[in-house]
Design goal:
It is built from four helices and three strands; from the N terminus they run E-H-E-E-H-H-H. By secondary structure, the chain is of the alpha+beta class.
Length: 132
């Protein structure tokens, strides 16, 4: 899952490690810190989950979330993290608005086969084979 926001100074949130009570997963809010709480509550507490903060095109805040035991971390860096750092050459002189960011990333930046948009915790669980 990849979430994006305009670049702002990160704020510490002491509730990030708090787990929600079981039930219907919440809708994602569009607020990076709140959405991280929702994702963490869906995926559970595990030392295998890596959350990497990054600045997409040096303009937008984002995170990459993955299980370290299930992926090749070098591939994550090479195929996902590194391409997100710089605009594609053909877009270097163009402005990318937040409304168009997801389409730009999925269609012109990331060349991996399985990317998907998620809008709530249920989508996260469904995409990862957990039962609802």
């Amino acid at each position: 899952m990849i979430r994006f926001r305009n670049r702002k100074k990160p704020q510490k949130n002491p509730n990030l490690t708090t787990r929600r009570t079981p039930g219907t997963p919440e809708k994602l809010t569009g607020c990076l810190e709140s959405d991280l709480m929702i994702v963490r509550s869906c995926l559970g507490d595990s030392d295998d989950i890596e959350i990497r903060h990054l600045h997409i095109f040096n303009e937008f805040q984002g995170v990459i979330i993955y299980y370290t035991t299930l992926v090749d971390t070098l591939s994550i860096y090479r195929d996902i993290h590194k391409p997100l750092m710089y605009k594609p050459r053909h877009l270097e002189d163009k402005s990318i608005h937040l409304d168009n960011l997801m389409d730009t990333l999925m269609n012109e930046t990331l060349y991996i086969s399985e990317t998907a948009r998620v809008s709530d915790g249920a989508d996260i669980l469904d995409k990862h084979g957990h039962s609802k």
